[in-house]
Amino acid sequence: MLKSQTRQSSWRRANIAKYTAHLAVQRALLSGTLQKQGCEVCGSNAVDAHHDQYEEPLNVRWLCRRHHVKLHYYGEDMFPIGRSSLEAQSHEE
Length: 93
Prior knowledge:
45% of the residues lie in helices and 11% in strands. It is mainly alpha-helical. The chain has one domain (7-92). It has a two-stranded antiparallel sheet with strand order 1-2. Strand 1 (47-51) and strand 2 form a beta hairpin.
């Protein structure tokens, strides 16, 4: 358990599911289990992983920073859910 009281450690304790999902994506990217895709809206290669459900940590949507921020600001209806990264990768193989 984290013992420090930094803003970051406080956020991690308050958002365990989000933090765990974030770590799972980082580990999967490092191991090659998961590969970044282009932004599902504009195709940019500079992307963030967006989780629709934290219970499925490797089921992410790849969005550039601009579209990721818009999605959180305007809501999920702005960009309907498309194929997940895992589904897209399995279709490519």
